[in-house]
Amino acid sequence: LYNRSKGMLPADFAVNNVSVVYYDDKWRLTPSGKEYLRDAAARVSGSEDQTVDSHTDTVVQYDTAIDDGGGNYNLTDHEYHTPVTGIYRCNARVQYLSPSDGTKCEAKIFKNGVAGTEIAQAALDGSVGANPVVSVSTEVELADGDTLTVVARHDEEVALNVNNDFEPAAQATYSLVEAR
User: Measured in whole angstroms, how far is the alpha carbon of residue 51 from the centre of its chain?
Assistant: First the structure.
């Protein structure tokens, strides 16, 4: 069979009549295609409320890893770093605290930082409740090393806080849907 230490690949081998080839520590070939073996999922939240200035794209500071077995979320730059090329799903929730009626509250997802490309956006006005939660999600093809960043933005004339320390209302999840 396959000897990883010598880097030798078998022509083929079968487990329960299903061909499986391991060709490094990251990949496995199966009859249905290539499968990524490492943990690419992450779920993060914050540890304290965060101030968001008016009319400014502000990176949401999720600084607590609830689940990040692959170590793909950077708690310092608040970005998810893709470990492999593929289709990724990102879901994020941002809760605004006490916006005025009619204030537009947004949550966005950017590829490769705020200076990169906005790939998803959702918005609510402040009349939907005292502390509205804006949910945004997307599926996107990304290259190995690309990043995903969650951003908050509002149009209130003064700074607002977002609730980052209550996980159900303030969190982001990232997952690999299909490796390429």
Answer: 21
Cα 168-171-176 angle, rounded to 5 deg? 120
Question: In this structure, are residues 45 and 165 in contact, taking their beta carbons and an 8 Å threshold?
Answer: yes
pLDDT per residue as tens digits for the range 70-128: 899 999 999 999 998 999 999 999 999 999 988 999 999 999 999 999 999 999 986 66
Question: Residue 29: its pLDDT value, please?
Answer: 59
CA distance 73 to 65: 8
Q: What is the DSSP string of 116-140?
A: SEEEEEEEEEGGG-SS-EEEEEEEE
Among 129, 15, 139, residue whose Cα is nearest residue 88: 139
Place of tokens 């249905």: 32
Instruction: Tell me which H or E stretch contains 151.
Output: strand 147-154
- If pLDDT is split at 50, 70 and 90, which confidence band does 28 have? low
Got the DSSP string for 63-124? -EEEE-TT--EETTTTEEE-SSSEEEEEEEEEEEESPPTT-EEEEEEEESSTTSEEEEEEEE
Q: In whole angstroms, what is the distance from residue 18 CA to residue 23 CA? A: 16
Residue corresponding to tokens 């470990």: 83
pLDDT(3) > 60: no
Contacts of 155 (CB under 8 A, 6+ apart): 54, 55, 103, 104
